């Protein structure tokens, strides 16, 4: 019974040519530009932009009839805090994006942009030297084995691993 049902579902004649996706279709603007940029940094910067906008709106809410100044309202106080948090968070996220963009992409007429691809060989040699000198010297290796032998009875044991 199951095999017949599976054969009917996965048989070639169950699909027509109209159901197959067109290979020549281009992705939409949303798929090309927005989905590609969707990462934690972008989402947190967008969230800070929303918080900053809420702060601007809250600070502009007018006073109640029984208040002398609109700065005495609770909305104004909350709006000021939201505005500060959002402004500093958005500025930090935006500058981080620009800095990373400048490291990897060459931007015309901007000094220092594209330094990683341009000096890749030199950077890899410097990083290799730093790692070899700081982590694989005799002092580090001996201290690793000394502490391993000293504390190996206290390390968690994994069953089935020799």
From TrEMBL:
Tree of life domain: Eukaryota
Protein keywords: Membrane, Transmembrane, Transmembrane helix
Chain segments annotated as transmembrane: 41-61, 81-100, 134-151
Full protein name: Transmembrane protein
Species per Swiss-Prot/TrEMBL record: Anaeramoeba flamelloides
